TrEMBL record:
Classification via CDD domains: REC_TPR
PANTHER family in the cross-refs: TWO-COMPONENT RESPONSE REGULATOR (PTHR43228), TWO-COMPONENT RESPONSE REGULATOR ARR22 (PTHR43228:SF1)
Domain Response regulatory residue range list: 2-121
A Pfam family that the UniProt record links to this protein: Response_reg
SMART domains with a match to the protein in the record: REC
Domain of life: Bacteria
The protein, known as: Response regulator
Transmembrane segments: none
Length: 535
């Protein structure tokens, strides 16, 4: 087994190292901070990570785990244990809600650590075949293996049922997942089973039923954080933005350290006109993300927008300077700085300088990947206010092409409609639809002509540009599959294909053609003798 110890104090690192040696683990690496841990984790995986909660200046263990999970830097089978002397209620809840395999309060003995690790590794061994199949993307076989696990490992039967239901959710099979959750609810009062049932109702657009179930969960257990998040999401889906904001505010009061929840609270607060809550939330997001390896300059833009609405241009300017100083090396920062500067100058009445900044932001948007649709909509809105219609149309053409569903398209259309430009909205919408058709058709034509590499290049670029369009994700996967089938196996493209399939499933879980992608992918793995998890 391999292990990584993340601990800033040399004495404690040595103690943990010795304890792990007693567990029979000899291959052990060390990291003194969250940032130092990211580097080895980008290059290799570990069986076990033992992480101190208080990592000193920088991220704490909870924030690191959130980053690792969100950016998929640790595989499903890595055991993550948080070690902490922190007994403050809110921080322990925050650590627990991210579901580490275990967390241990100091002081503890070697026997305690050995016992906890042994239990976690024993459970991991039972689930390892399923994890490998999931990593490979063979979800149908993973579901079957979960059924076998329920019979073979009776002590983990409930956990196998839970994972099987989650796999059905991932595959878009709401009815199958719902049946499992109802069976669990009938046999025992399990909060996560009721949450799972609410998620399946949400998938079927049965928002009223989902809201009732989630409201009851929140009232019964004020510490079940996922229930708050799904309740807010359900209320947002039905247009109850004020209620969604209040739900997230209640969650943050219980567990105030989850950055992504704070960011969503800030967005809702800004949208509902609650400037005070928006400012507080975004200030915390910027502060908490300061030491993350995955900082996003768009968080600074959100805070600048809020401060400008408040009228505090001096503080907004300070935030822009901080963005330039600390995030100037990131590709997105140029566009973010230009938009932020335009907002401040517009508020100060410097219209000409604001237009110059908007021109710069629009140019940066055309050449920079990864800028969110939210930021593009905001940029287009200001372009329309300053009669920069061509920029607005260019920006929103990509946003509309990237729309994952009707709701996303409606949000994009509203940018023009709120500016009284309904005709331009229709024109750009038509152009966006033609853009997607041309991309997909172009990829298919190249593959038919035998230019499999050209098809992969075209569709991969399209997927980077339009990451939320399910049609593009699906056809990008098809392009890579045709290349692998006709040109031979390449591990890098195998991983890329898996990512495209996962994106297509996430964006359009009910698409009946997803099973065809899985079948093609599994057939190619069998053709080249690729084993699960081997790339």
């Amino acid at each position: 087994m391999t292990a990584l110890i993340i601990e800033p104090h040399s004495g404690m690192r040595a103690n943990l190292h010795g304890m792990l040696n007693l567990c029979g683990i000899a291959r052990i690496d060390h990291a003194v901070s969250a940032g130092a841990a990211i580097r080895p984790l980008k290059n290799r995986s570990y069986d076990l990570i033992v992480c101190e909660y208080d990592l000193g200046d920088g991220q704490d263990g909870q924030q690191l785990l959130e980053d690792l999970r969100h950016n998929k830097l640790i595989p499903l089978w890595t055991v993550f244990i948080i070690v902490t002397a922190e007994r403050m209620y809110e921080k322990v809840v925050s650590a627990a809600e991210l579901a580490p395999n275990d967390y241990i309060l100091k002081p503890f003995t070697a026997d305690t650590l050995t016992d906890r690790i042994a239990r976690a590794i024993e459970k991991r061994a039972a689930f390892l075949p399923v994890y490998h199949l999931m990593e490979q993307g063979n979800l149908e076989e993973a579901i079957s293996t979960c059924r076998q696990g329920e019979d073979k490992h009776r002590r983990y039967a409930i956990d196998f049922m839970r994972l099987r239901a989650e796999l059905h959710v991932i595959r878009g099979e709401a009815d199958a997942a719902q049946a499992i959750y109802r069976e669990l609810i009938e046999t025992r009062a399990v909060a996560w089973a009721r949450l799972g049932l609410a998620r399946t109702l949400f998938m079927q657009n049965r928002f009223g039923e989902a809201e009732m179930l989630l409201s009851a969960l929140v009232e019964e257990s004020g510490k079940y954080m996922d229930a708050y998040d799904w309740l807010a999401r359900t209320r947002e889906a039905t247009g109850q933005l004020e209620q969604a904001k209040e739900t997230l505010a209640a969650a943050v009061a219980v567990s105030p350290h989850a950055v992504r929840r704070l960011r969503r609270l800030g967005d809702l607060a800004l949208e509902t006109g609650d400037i005070a809550t928006a400012e507080e939330s975004f200030q915390k997001v910027v502060a908490k993300a300061r030491f993350s390896e995955f900082r996003d300059p768009e968080d600074h833009v959100r805070l600048v927008r809020t401060l400008v609405k408040k009228g505090d241009t001096e503080q907004a300017s300070a935030i822009i300077r901080d963005m330039e100083r600390s995030l100037g090396h990131l590709p997105k920062t140029g566009a973010c700085r230009a938009l932020s500067s335009a907002l401040v100058r517009d508020r100060l009445g410097n219209a000409q300088q604001a237009v110059e900044d908007l021109n710069g932001a629009a140019a940066a948007c055309r050449t920079t990947d990864g800028i969110s649709d939210d930021m593009k909509r905001e940029l287009a809105r200001y372009c329309l206010q300053h009669a920069l219609d061509e920029h607005a149309a260019d920006i929103m053409r990509d946003v509309m092409s990237n729309a994952a569903d009707d709701a996303a398209m409606a949000r994009a259309m509203s940018v023009f409609e709120q500016a009284g430009r309904d005709e331009l909205a229709q024109t750009v919408a038509g152009e966006s639809r033609r853009q997607v058709v041309e991309l997909v058709t172009g990829g298919a034509d190249r593959a038919r002509q035998g230019d499999y590499q050209g098809a992969v290049d075209l569709m991969s670029a399209a997927a980077r540009k339009l990451p939320d369009n399910p049609q593009v994700a699906f056809n990008a996967a098809v392009a890579v599959l045709k290349y692998l089938e006709n040109c031979g196996w390449e591990p890098r493209l195998g991983e890329q294909c898996r990512a495209h399939i996962d994106a297509a499933r996430r964006l359009s879980p009910g698409n009946p053609r997803l099973s065809l992608l899985d079948d093609l992918y599994q057939g190619i793995l069998r053709k080249y003798g690729i084993r699960p998890g081997s790339g």
